[in-house]
Every structure is written in structure tokens, then in C-alpha cells.
Write a structure and sequence with these properties.
This protein has about 130 residues and is α+β, with helices and mostly antiparallel strands. The protein has a single domain (about 1-120), classed as 2-Layer Sandwich (Alpha-Beta Plaits), CATH 3.30.70.100. The chain is built from 5 helices and 4 strands. A hairpin with a 6-residue loop joins strand 2 and strand 3. This is Antibiotic biosynthesis monooxygenase.
Length: about 130
């Protein structure tokens, strides 16, 4: 199951552009969040997540990308790929009212959370 999620995220990462990671890419903060949600609260969780992601990308110039995917066999296992312009953009993001609202809303919905910081080592994309 974990292999499927990481394969899906690898495909997403490869969708950004063709070639090696550039200096600009290397300054970015890229994180994978692995979340297990209470299945009974999954619909409410997905709504809160979608709201938070939409607002963040719209309002925050340093929030570059969010991809949220659910395991087909167990939709309560969610993996999010987050890309920020840099560490400062991420630190700013977690202080915003919309992020704090999301965290308070989902606090009792999330059964587990694992945050994994990653480095982009290569990217590929169809134009």
C-alpha cells in the first residue's frame, strides 16, 4: 500500500517539468504528509482539506502546489504532496487563519500524521 502511494507521488512530482532539478527547485520546501483519517469523518475531512488547500494556493504566493490523493483500497489513508517556494513560505503558511482553522477543524478527525520532508532530485512533465 505504501509503495502505491509513493509511486503515485513520484508520478506527480515527475509532472512538473523536464530535466534535472534547478537551483530554484532546490530552494523549494517539498513535503509529503501521510494522514490516516477516521473513516466515519472522511467526508468532513476532505471538505476541510479542500477548503484549506484552495484558499492557500489562491491567497499565498509562496504556496505553490498541493496534491491530495487517497488510497483506492482505503480512502481514509490520504497522502498530500505540498510544495512551498521556500521554508519561510511554509512558516508563513502555518500561521494563516485558514490553516489554523483547518487544524482546529480536523484535530479529532486525524488518527495519525506523518510529515516527510523530501528533496526533488529529478522532474519530468508533458507540456
Amino acid at each position: 500500500m505504501k509503495a502505491k502511494l509513493f509511486s503515485a507521488l513520484a508520478l506527480i512530482l515527475m509532472s512538473f517539468s523536464v530535466g534535472k532539478a534547478t537551483a530554484q527547485d532546490k530552494g523549494q520546501m517539498v513535503r509529503i504528509a501521510k494522514i490516516t483519517v477516521d473513516p466515519v469523518q472522511l467526508e468532513a475531512y476532505n471538505a476541510a482539506l479542500t477548503e484549506q488547500m484552495t484558499i492557500a494556493v489562491k491567497l499565498e504566493p509562496g504556496v505553490l502546489t498541493y496534491y491530495a490523493v487517497a488510497d483506492k483500497d482505503n480512502p481514509a489513508n490520504i497522502t498530500i504532496l505540498e510544495i512551498y517556494a521556500n521554508e519561510a513560505a511554509y512558516q508563513s503558511h502555518i500561521q494563516t487563519p485558514h490553516f489554523k482553522k483547518y487544524k482546529a477543524t480536523v484535530e479529532k478527525m486525524v488518527k495519525s500524521l506523518e510529515l516527510i520532508n523530501v528533496d526533488v532530485i529529478g522532474i519530468a512533465k508533458k507540456d
